[in-house]
């Protein structure tokens, strides 16, 4: 019997055997973090076809034992994490679940929990516990301070405590949810955020050019848009497909987002300025008016700070990433993606700040940050409009955004349809087509994006407190 409060300094024979089934990005991240923590018995596997490759990769890591398949891992482990594609979780648990050691605790890392719950209930023997997990960040982000969802589904408190003890060295922030609460929260935070950024990528691709190379201003909050879009396309398609297609609440959110995009664009096209301003400002009031009584520190302190993370070439020709001279004011942009996001939150009565404190991913935090910046920045002088007014004016009077905005409408509708049809193959084709277009830029975007996330996370600590 493993003590629920065990820690990595315990003698090896008192430590739990930790099993990792699926050694892709997340499985590898868990193996790395668990080994670094000092856990000495980590048993892992991927598909049998990857057995030799994995054995070679971990030959010098003493704590890691590689198995040919999930039967070997399941039979010896006290705590098992399945980190496989959400689409396949049913089949994988059906195959290996019956081999689970009596009294073990089983978790899944899947980003959408509905199929995982069904699979665990159906295929795990009655004498094993279910305490699921979800690290709410990608494999290249530090786990420190990030939300880590724990779901005590079919387990006594002692099993939950053991999972807490095993994962404590990650220094993540535990968030306790039920399976159902998890899927509702992640539909609101992740699925719709991804839909917005996937649509930006598709639209920019269809406009045939990297935005920062088409003479379009890419500083300030545009920097966040470009970096996050690239981060998402650099990840695996199935992560986003799974969490959108297999989460029933996500369809509703993504559909409303596409509707908001379309309706706002129609008002812009028709020049219905009064109605556009009324609708957007009312939505802004509903979403941001209640922002902790207006006392919460903004997520983005200054738009200019973001220029240091920009991908656009610098004036001295030194590639990317450095600041401009800071004197030129960015031209107003219609910011259709952001106006629609706030309209969507308002239409579905979602308070994004409530999610921020519970289970926000770094990307969601940044996305609220830019929306908040657009909606809450005051005008710099009595004669100049606020950022929001400048954006609304531009959307009505400046035709130069129309073609990009039209592409964005088409893209948002396309992604929404793809999700509502539940078509994984179509999703993969759309995703990978755009990924190919941006592929050359992933390296530098990853570096700049990680720095940007680190900066925002550090600045958010105080505000969250
Ligand atoms: N990437 C991210 O940012 C995050 C992902 N997640 C979730 O974690 C899970 C894993 O994602 P991620 O690691 O990124 O994806 P990967 O594709 O990198 O990893 C999944 C791994 O599972 C393997 N696998 C599939 N079937 C089996 C099987 N029968 N036995 C053993 N291994 C198998 C896959 O092999 P093969 O490739 O050969 O099919 C692959 O190596 C997903 O459910 C995802 O939604 C959660 C948080 C963040
Ligand atoms: O932060 C995001 O939304 C990401 O894109 C990274 C990510 C992807 C899937 C998850 O289940 C958790 C985090």
UniProtKB/TrEMBL annotation:
Molecular functions per Gene Ontology: NAD+ binding; prephenate dehydrogenase (NAD+) activity; prephenate dehydrogenase (NADP+) activity
Q: Which residues form the Prephenate/arogenate dehydrogenase domain?
A: 16-298
Keyword terms of this UniProt record: Amino-acid biosynthesis, Aromatic amino acid biosynthesis, NADP, Oxidoreductase, Tyrosine biosynthesis
Q: Which InterPro entries does the annotation name? A: 6-PGluconate_DH-like_C_sf (IPR008927), NAD(P)-bd_dom_sf (IPR036291), Preph/Arog_dehydrog (IPR050812), Prephen_DH (IPR003099), Prephenate_DH_fun (IPR012385)
> Pathway membership of this protein?
Amino-acid biosynthesis; L-tyrosine biosynthesis; (4-hydroxyphenyl)pyruvate from prephenate (NADP(+) route): step 1/1
- Quote the catalytic activity from the record: prephenate + NADP(+) = 3-(4-hydroxyphenyl)pyruvate + CO2 + NADPH
Q: Name one GO biological process term.
A: tyrosine biosynthetic process
Quick check: keyword Oxidoreductase in the entry? yes
UniProt family annotation: Belongs to the prephenate/arogenate dehydrogenase family.
Name of this protein = Prephenate dehydrogenase [NADP(+)]
């Amino acid at each position: 019997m493993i003590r629920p409060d065990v820690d990595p300094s315990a003698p090896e024979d008192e430590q739990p055997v930790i099993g990792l089934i699926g050694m892709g990005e997340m499985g590898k991240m868990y193996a790395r973090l668990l080994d670094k923590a000092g856990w000495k018995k980590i048993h892992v596997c991927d598909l049998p076809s990857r057995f030799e490759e994995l054995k070679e990769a971990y030959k010098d890591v003493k704590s890691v034992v590689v198995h040919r398949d999930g039967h070997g891992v399941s039979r010896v482990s006290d705590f098992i994490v399945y980190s496989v594609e959400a689409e396949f979780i049913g089949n994988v648990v059906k195959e290996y679940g019956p081999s689970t050691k009596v009294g073990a605790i089983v978790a899944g890392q899947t980003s959408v929990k509905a199929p995982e719950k069904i699979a665990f209930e159906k295929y795990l023997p009655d004498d094993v516990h279910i305490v699921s997990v979800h690290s709410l960040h990608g494999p290249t982000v530090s786990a420190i301070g990030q939300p880590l969802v724990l779901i005590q589904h079919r387990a006594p408190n002692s099993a939950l405590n053991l999972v807490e003890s095993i994962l404590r060295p990650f220094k993540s922030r535990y968030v306790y949810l039920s399976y159902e609460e998890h899927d509702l929260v992640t539909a609101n935070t992740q699925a719709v955020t991804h839909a917005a950024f996937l649509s930006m990528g598709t639209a920019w691709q269809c406009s045939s050019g990297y935005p920062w190379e088409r003479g379009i201003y890419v500083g300030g909050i545009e920097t966040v848009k470009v970096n996050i879009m690239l981060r998402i396309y650099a990840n695996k398609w199935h992560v986003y497909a799974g969490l959108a297609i297999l989460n029933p609440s996500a369809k509703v959110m993504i559909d409303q987002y596409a509707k908001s995009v379309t309706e706002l664009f129609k008002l812009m096209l028709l020049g219905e300025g009064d109605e556009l301003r009324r609708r957007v400002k009312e939505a802004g009031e509903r979403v941001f008016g209640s922002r902790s009584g207006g006392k919460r520190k903004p997520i983005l302190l200054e738009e200019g700070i973001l220029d240091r993370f920009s991908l656009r070439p610098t004036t001295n020709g030194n590639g990317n990433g450095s600041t401009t001279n800071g004197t030129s004011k960015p031209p107003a942009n219609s910011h259709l993606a952001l106006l629609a996001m706030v309209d969507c939150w308002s239409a579905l009565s979602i308070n994004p700040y409530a999610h921020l404190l519970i289970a926000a991913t770094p990307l969601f935090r940044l996305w609220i940050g830019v929306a908040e910046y657009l909606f809450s920045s005051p005008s710099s002088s009595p004669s100049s409009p606020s950022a929001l007014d400048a954006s609304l004016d531009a959307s009505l009077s400046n035709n130069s955004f129309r073609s990009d905005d039209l592409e964005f409408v088409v893209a948002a509708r396309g992604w929404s349809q793809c999700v509502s049809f539940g078509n994984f193959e179509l999703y993969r084709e759309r995703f990978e087509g755009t990924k190919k277009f941006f592929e050359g830029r992933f390296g530098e975007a990853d570096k700049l994006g990680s720095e940007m996330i680190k900066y925002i996370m550090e600045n958010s600590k105080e505000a969250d407190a």
